[in-house]
Amino acid sequence: MRMMMLSISLLIIYLSFSTHVHGQNTCEAFIDLTLIIDSSGSVPPDDFE
After folding, report:
1. Do residues 34 and 44 make contact, with C-beta atoms less than 8 angstroms apart?
2. What is the largest CA-CA distance in the chain?
3. pTM score, two decimals?
4. The pLDDT of residue 10
5. What is the 3-state secondary structure (H, E, C) of 10-24?
6. Could you tell me if 43 and 25 are in contact, meaning their C-beta atoms sit under 8 angstroms apart?
7. Distance between CA atoms of 23 and 35, rounded to whole angstroms?
8. CB contact at 8 A, 19 and 29
9. What is the pLDDT of residues 1-49, one digit of tens each?
10. Do 15 and 29 touch, CB atoms closer than 8 A?
11. CA neighbours closer than 13 Å in the CB half-sphere of residue 24
């Protein structure tokens, strides 16, 4: 459960950082995030498609 909370926190931090850097390009941030999750061996979330 703690790991899940950590993942969610990192997800939120990453998304806010990405949107801040890339401006309106949230879609690209989601794609980057899915690639990162995929490479880390976890299942990429389907909610963001």
Report:
1. yes
2. 32
3. 0.36
4. 83
5. HHHHHHHHHHHHHCC
6. no
7. 20
8. yes
9. 678 888 888 887 777 776 555 555 666 767 777 776 666 655 555 555 4
10. yes
11. 0
